[in-house]
Write a structure and sequence with these properties.
single chain, 14 strands, 18 helices
Length: about 550
């Protein structure tokens, strides 16, 4: 180490001892810059093919959510928060995904998940069908022509095991895009399909247990007992009910050897996965409870990390590898309700699940991707001091009308802050929220425009990745490109035809990596080819 660098390090260490925390002056920032540059110059890409693929979807987890979640998680550990790093922020590669649907500037989860999992962009509210299919209209011939295969079908054809984990209903938009083909994302139960189309198309829950690729999933973990027709106690869940009298759990269990169904944390975590071929866990009538509100006991609902751990243990038994999708789906639901604290805690839970996956998979064999399907109308604003409570006020000096660091462009939080009895438009319309109210998990952050549900945001979302072929996920790209990379990395599906005969997880030097990247990209993702290859993904 050079004398100057050593001197800087010693000064920083000395001030850390004296003041208890690093003093963020010139030596501190120079040391950070030097280390970051050193790491970048010595970065080695893993350019071989992946045995396994795990894709984490933070539903609605846009960049402002990630930044706020980073600070939130850092503050939970007693630090200022801004300096904290979520585990996936340490991944070597990052890109930006353009999330629009074919027909919408700002997308929904069905169209975005279809893009990420099939390699083909689609329309708003559509699942597993390209943009030639009609929204809300089932036409057998048209649907057949528009049908798309997902990464799960590709993986199964390649001999890999597959699984899905979500905190939403297992029939909800993001997981459903892995297996369902539906003209409307809400057709989760038979009762939701218009009568005239019930002979034309199966509801999404039936597609889960009756059709490929979902009926071959080794792991299915999430919510949605009502959608599957599993009897539940009377509850306040307002999702759909089956009217055909089917209990689809019986359909799933029929003919399966070494299978297990669980509905609570204790049974999930005590499952002997070494002796199981199939594992299904459905833990709630509809969506799973928010992490801040769930029962942490053995009879309650598992955490996202619990489910991810058991899924990885199950799937890692495969000698040919696996593909797993893990969704932190309730980030999105919290944002729709303007529950900023709930959203950040759900994002924190997703980071814990990623942490487990990183620690319990081989980095030379497993491609791990962390991204979002879309963003939200959620901002981090003002000029709060360093270390200020991320859930607090941005400017407390405005005594009569302080404003929050985290706010929404629209949503139900409008009425939380409105002076309910104010009829004088010349007076201040907004009330100061008592601190005890603001600390509640379901406190709604401010929105200046009322909507029953806050909307999605349309900006690009980050894509963090590590492992074999992750270097391909850099730059700015269309969202459907993510599926192409997963297919190429794991040698499956149409992109698998570009696989080269190289060893899994081969490490190369930075210069060789750069050369390989150019070769791979020129052969693999010529823009014209990417645009025209969509037809290959249809059955």
């Amino acid at each position: 180490m050079e004398k100057t660098a050593l001197t800087n390090l010693m000064l920083t260490l000395a001030m850390t001892v004296v003041f208890g925390v690093p003093v963020e002056e010139v030596n501190y920032w120079n040391r950070y810059g030097e280390k970051r540059l050193h790491d970048a110059l010595n970065k080695k890409d893993i350019v071989g093919h992946a045995k396994n693929v795990i894709i984490f979807i933070g539903d609605g987890m846009g960049m402002s959510t990630i930044t706020a979640a980073r600070i939130y998680k850092g503050q939970l550990s007693g630090n200022n928060g801004e300096e904290y790093q979520l585990v996936y922020e340490k991944f070597p590669n990052i890109g930006l995904s353009k999330t629009y649907n074919v027909d919408k500037q700002v997308p929904d989860s069905a169209g975005t998940a279809t893009a990420m999992f099939t390699g083909v962009k689609s329309n708003y509210y559509m699942l597993g069908l390209d943009s030639n299919a009609q929204y809300g209209v089932c036409d057998n011939q048209r649907n057949k022509r528009s049908r798309l295969d997902s990464i799960m079908k590709w993986a199964q054809v390649a001999g890999k095991d597959t699984g899905v984990v979500t905190t939403t209903r297992v029939t909800h938009a993001t997981p459903a895009a892995l297996y369902a083909h539906s003209n409307h994302r809400d057709w989760e139960c038979d009762s939701e399909i218009p009568l005239k189309y019930r002979d034309c198309i199966k509801d999404i829950a039936r597609q889960l247990v009756e059709d490929e690729p979902a009926k071959n999933f080794k792991v299915i973990l999430g919510g949605g007992q009502k959608q599957l027709g599993i009897p539940v106690e009377p509850n306040d869940d307002d999702s759909c009910n089956r009217t055909d009298g089917r209990n689809l759990l019986h359909t799933w269990m029929e003919g399966r050897q070494n299978s297990l169904f669980v509905n609570n944390t204790g049974d999930l975590m005590n499952a002997n996965v070494d002796k199981l071929d199939y594992l299904m866990g459905i833990f709630s009538p509809g969506h799973m409870p928010y992490a801040l509100e769930r029962d942490h006991g053995p009879n309650g609902s598992p955490s996202l990390q619990n489910m991810t751990a058991q899924a990885i243990k199950m799937l890692s038994k495969s000698s040919t590898g696996f593909v797993l999708m893990v969704e932190g789906g309730r980030i999105d639901h919290a944002h729709h309700a303007n529950y900023a604290k709930m959203a950040l805690h759900e994002a924190s839970e997703l980071a814990d699940a990623v942490d487990y996956a990183v620690a319990n998979t081989n980095p030379r064999e497993t491609l791990i991707i962390v991204t979002a399907d879309h963003s939200h109308a959620f901002t981090m604003n003002g000029y709060p001091n360093r270390g200020n409570d991320i859930l607090g006020y941005a400017n407390k000096s405005v005594v009569d009308n302080p404003y929050e660091t985290l706010t929404y462009a629209n949503g139900p939080g409008y009425y939380t802050h409105l002076v309910s009895n104010s009829s004088d438009c010349s007076s201040n319309l907004w009330r100061v929220i008592p601190e005890e109210e603001r600390k509640q998990s379901r406190y709604r952050h401010f929105s200046p425009y009322y909507l029953e549900d806050e909307t999605h945001g349309g900006e690009d979302v980050p894509v963090f990745s590590t492992g074999p072929s992750s270097y391909l996920l850099t730059g700015v790209f269309e969202q459907n490109y993510i599926a192409h990379v997963m297919g190429y990395a794991a040698c499956m599906g149409p992109p698998g035809k570009y696989c080269e005969d190289v060893n899994i997880g081969m490490l190369v030097s930075p210069s060789a990596s750069s050369s390989h990247s150019v070769t791979a990209m020129s052969a693999l993702f010529i823009p014209a080819l990417t645009l025209s290859i969509g037809a290959l993904y249809k059955r």
